[in-house]
Amino acid sequence: MVKKLKRFYLFLVFAFLYAPIVFLMVFSFNDSRLKSSWNGFTLKWYQELFQNSEILSSFYNSLLVAVLATIVATILGTLAAIGIYYMKNWKKNIALNVNYIPVLNPDIVTAISLMILYKVLSMETGFLTVLISHIMFTTPYVVLAVLPKLKQMSKSLPEAAMDLGATPMYTLRKIILPEISSGIFSGAILAFTLSLDDFVVSYFTTGNGFTTLSVTIFGMAKKGINPAINALSTLMFLGILILLLIVYRTSKDPDEEI
């Protein structure tokens, strides 16, 4: 009886989490613009998606920002995590607490702060300001993803390599980075999804004709969202799901399969 209740509770939790996504995916094949009635199966919204220049352009912008922000944030976050890991005592605690601030800070506060900063610096808002903002708020997540892998790494490995004559840079490339590669990859995926998903920071830091997908959808919401967005959301969800499966396979311990 207890097992059945546990399973039923687990089913309710997953149903609550994924029912809206399933609903969206199903209605991406609906032959009606209305979300309240099913008029039959169709692929026309997928066809319209690839013919809608506004949606495709904003999606390309979001994808470009996400990829570039992920690359830079992964490099900065990995190096920062290694630096924090080798810090001592109070310096390490201060660095960790400073890293937590962007993570815990409300998005709206971060967005307004960045907007004011760009105005003070007389920076024209657009692609560059959005990219810098995304790098800023995704880097701390990479740090948090890499640090646990550094703690799992044996400290004797880099020390032994340098005792044998390896330079610090060689030790970093050949010893440390391979040992924490799964954490780096997980941090990169997390940074990519956070950047692609962001709305608040993008909304307050964009301008000059540059718009991301989330800002475009927000604009559509005032006059009715095009069902082609459902099709795009379905494809994006499947893409992220594939990435998560890849992360799971790459981070899985081979001994677990035995």
Please give a structural write-up:
It is a single chain. The protein has about 260 residues and is mainly α. The protein has two domains: about 1-30; about 55-250, MetI-like (MetI-like fold), CATH 1.10.3720. The chain has helices at about 1-25, 45-50, 55-85, 90-105, 105-120, 125-150, 155-165, 170-180, 180-195, 200-205, 215-220, 230-250. Helix 1 (about 1-25) packs across helix 12 (about 230-250) and helix 9 runs antiparallel to helix 12.
List keywords for this structure.
single chain, 2 domains, MetI-like fold, 258 residues, mainly alpha
Number of strands: 0
Low-confidence stretches: 254-258
What is the assigned CATH homologous superfamily of the largest domain? MetI-like
Element pattern in H and E? HHHHHHHHHHHH
Through-space gap between termini: 32 Å
Q: Evaluate the radius of gyration.
A: 22 Å
Q: Which CATH class of the largest domain applies here? A: Mainly Alpha
Overall mean pLDDT: 86
Strand fraction: under 5%
List the helices and strands and how they pair.
Blueprint: H1 2-27, H2 44-49, H3 53-85, H4 89-104, H5 107-120, H6 127-152, H7 156-163, H8 168-179, H9 181-197, H10 200-205, H11 213-221, H12 228-251
Overview in brief:
The chain is an all-alpha fold and 258 residues long. The protein contains 12 helices and no strands. It starts with a helix and ends in a 7-residue tail after the last helix.
